[in-house]
Amino acid sequence: MLPTHVPQIHNHDEEIQEVESETYQVITDDNLSLEAKEIELIKRALNRNQGKRKKAADDLGISERTLYRKIKQYELE
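and the corresponding structure tokens:
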């Protein structure tokens, strides 16, 4: 069961606040497709890092090689 109150982290960086609210939205979204969520997170990481795959992989907590494989798998090139 999801908590009725989600504590707010007061951070002055608007991007982090946006990501936190989007993360909560991912959790509560009716669409539970892991593949769709993975694609969404990969795209967001690449956009946030101006297409730099090494930095995007670091943000995602995966190796650069894994990111390359997933980009190819999901045809995100």
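(Above: one complete record from the training split.) Confidence is low (pLDDT under 50) at residues 9-13.
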